[in-house]
Write a structure and sequence with these properties.
The structure holds two protein chains of two kinds.
Chain A: H1 2-20, H2 25-45, H3 70-101
Chain B: H1 2-22, H2 27-55, E1 58-61, E2 72-75, H3 77-96, H4 110-126, H5 130-148, H6 154-185, H7 190-199, H8 202-220, H9 238-263, H10 269-292, H11 296-316, H12 320-351, H13 362-365, H14 367-381, H15 387-401, H16 405-431, H17 448-466, H18 468-481
Antiparallel strand pairs in B: 1-2
Helix pairs in contact in B: 1-2, 1-4, 2-3, 3-4, 3-9, 3-12, 3-17, 4-5, 4-9, 5-6, 6-8, 8-9, 9-11, 9-12, 10-11, 10-16, 11-12, 11-15, 11-16, 12-14, 12-15, 12-17, 12-18, 14-16, 14-17, 15-16, 15-17, 17-18
Chain lengths: 130, 486
């Protein structure tokens, strides 16, 4: 089970990195959320997988024998919620960028850092264009 | 009462964020509540620092779950001083916002986001739990994204994207590091981790620690992953720019310091060697980037990167004196850097541009502004008797004492190049003639709050410079409260 999970994490991570290295903004955003999923699986695996017994200590006993580790599941739940918020924000950002600039190629997005002027020096950032 | 004080760096700003959200229909009242909330946070942080200095480290565990199981807030002198300076920067930013020097647009989300940012930064400083630290990093990230996109111009959105990608990857790396650390030790609480990680073989622990520290180095703006910083900061309006520049990268440095100095104390020497070279590369690339630019904001943004190098160098020296140097440096740098950005905004409002090729003539018309600029500028360079001299002196002396001559030489060289950039700003903005012959400084700008904020910060710089001993003793006490390896 651990090996299966490790291979799955590797495959999702590879797909995420491939998409993130792309020039298209939407692919980058999806890539980051895929990397997030891989990391969530990794967090889940850190509590050891195998047992499926609920983590409930039987009456009269002091220690949990053979149950799953509940802590990583709680951590993953938190990370999923936060990751969901970030993905929503980044999708809206990609959409607004497309609407405002008409560009979804990161090479064309040069508004914050305009290309150098003809004299080889940085161009002046006009603050009226804010 | 003690529990409230310990949680106040998070509770107070969150409450103010909630209040200002509810008051969104009455913007004036919301702005006043926001400023009052900032002052309340400052008062709570002062009380917290006094309590920590009088009674030692303060702890609060939440939800009646005792320490290694529940989430704990642990406030030692280092955390308390960081929380205090966060509150101070919040107040300075909110005061400056009331001037007409490049203020942030008064949108209904402005004040809630500023306070959410303060809550995230404060939480990162006081928490004693690795996963909780991740949550505060995410709060910080979301609030800063909101503030970056506030202007909604093309430039702002472009900057937000660039800031988002590397920072989101950094946060995910941190989460992966948490998974590795938890898998190896079974703990997330700092104290429990310190004990459990020393039982794991150091070389097995190293990749997990390296993953966590790499994430923090991205947040700190260290070489080679600082690209998000100089490509996004300059699009921010002045008060927010000062707040970002003062706090966000320093949270990353603080986290590296906390991890290496307090939690993973048995990290092998190779990690410190690598960190030292990263620090040197950060210093040099930052200062060279600054030398290329003509926009004051972009010059200063690159100087944040270069100064981060000095703080990391202090950590890399892995000794009591080195860590004292880092703490002294962080506290001095936050004040100086925020002040430089705020003074740049005053220059902008008087001359009409941030670009050095478009401005000048301020020495004839506003000589006192020139003097005010020189205080933080020369402190950043490290000219005695200003605060930056002592910060650099502690780090450089320790680096020499350890025989790290290349690191020392790099630190001194970068000091000279910093002087070049600061003099470039001074010569162009103050000494040179304004390119427009007809130019006179506008008289209708409201600069009272801006003067109050900048002169206040400059005074702190001068006081630290003339009397470094109290701050040095405090940094010494803060290091002794941590578990720095001998």
């Amino acid at each position: 089970m651990s090996w299966f999970l490790a291979i799955a994490i590797g495959a999702i991570l590879a797909a995420g990195i491939f998409l993130t290295l792309s020039r298209s903004v939407l692919r980058v955003v999806i890539g980051i959320s895929l990397i997030g999923s891989a990391v969530n699986l990794m967090l889940f695996a850190s509590g050891r997988v195998g047992s499926g017994t609920p983590p409930i200590i039987d009456e009269g006993l002091q220690v949990l024998a053979g149950g799953v580790n509940p802590l990583p599941q709680a951590l993953v739940l938190t990370a999923i919620v936060i990751g969901f918020a970030l993905t929503c924000f980044s999708l809206v950002l990609a959409l607004t960028l497309k609407q405002k600039t008409g560009a979804s190629d990161t090479y064309e997005l040069r508004d914050a850092e305009p290309p150098l002027g003809t004299d080889g020096k940085p161009t002046v950032l006009e603050d009226s264009q804010r | 009462m003690s529990a409230f004080l310990v949680a106040s760096p998070v509770l107070v700003p969150l409450a103010v964020a909630l209040l200002t959200t509810l008051l969104h229909t009455r913007p004036r009242l919301a702005a006043n509540v926001s400023l009052l909330g900032g002052v309340a946070l400052l008062a709570c942080s002062l009380a917290l620092l006094a309590r920590v200095l009088a009674d030692g480290v303060q702890r609060t565990a939440f939800g009646n779950w005792p320490a290694p199981f529940g989430i704990e807030f642990v406030v030692d002198p280092l955390s308390a001083s960081m929380a205090l300076i966060t509150a101070l920067m919040g107040v300075v930013c909110l005061v400056f916002q009331r001037s007409s020097a490049d203020p942030a647009p008064e949108s209904p989300t402005l004040h809630p986001l500023i306070h959410a940012l303060l809550a995230g930064v404060g939480g990162a400083f006081v928490t004693g739990d690795l996963f909780n630290l991740y949550v505060w990093f995410e709060v910080m990230l979301l609030a800063s994204l909101g503030l970056l996109a506030l202007g909604m111009g093309r430039r702002h959105l472009d900057a937000t994207l660039k800031y988002f990608v590397l920072n989101a990857l950094g946060t995910l790396l941190f989460l992966a590091g948490i998974a590795a650390v938890y898998g190896l030790t079974g703990h997330l609480n700092y104290d429990a981790l310190a004990q459990a990680s020393s039982l794991v073989e150091p070389l097995r622990m190293l990749p997990a620690v390296a993953l966590v520290c790499l994430a923090f180095l991205i947040k700190a703006g260290a070489f080679p992953l600082f690209a998000w910083l100089p490509s996004s900061y300059h699009t921010l309006p002045a008060p927010l720019l000062a707040l970002f520049a003062a706090l966000l990268t320093k949270v990353g440095v603080y986290a590296v310091l906390r991890m290496l100095g307090d939690v993973f104390v048995v990290t092998p020497d190779i990690a410190y060697q690598v960190l030292g070279w990263i620090a040197v590369a950060t210093m040099i690339t930052g200062v060279l980037g600054a030398a290329f630019h003509w926009d004051i904001r972009r010059i200063l943004a690159f100087h944040i990167v270069s100064q981060i190098g000095y703080m990391l160098l202090g950590i890399a020296l892995d000794s009591e004196a080195g860590t004292i140097g880092t703490i002294f440096y962080i506290l001095h740098h936050i004040i100086v850097k925020a002040n430089l950005f705020l003074i740049a905004a005053i220059i902008f409002s008087l001359t009409g541009s941030y670009d050095l090729r478009r401005i000048g003539g301020l020495w004839k018309t506003r000589p006192w502004l020139g003097v005010l600029f020189l205080i933080p500028a020369l402190s950043l360079v490290g000219i005695p008797p200003l605060s930056g001299f002592w910060a650099k002196f502690i780090v450089v002396r320790e680096s020499l004492a350890q025989g790290e001559f290349i690191w020392t030489a790099a630190a001194l060289l970068v000091g000279f190049l910093t002087l070049y950039s600061m003099m470039k700003i001074w010569m162009q903005a103050f000494w040179a003639k304004h390119p427009d012959e007809q130019w006179t400084p506008p008289s209708d700008v409201r600069l009272g709050p801006a003067w109050l904020a900048t002169i206040g910060l400059a005074l702190i710089t001068v006081v630290i410079g003339l009397m470094p001993q109290p701050l040095y003793s405090f940094a010494e006490q803060a290091v002794r409260a941590m578990g720095v390896s001998p």
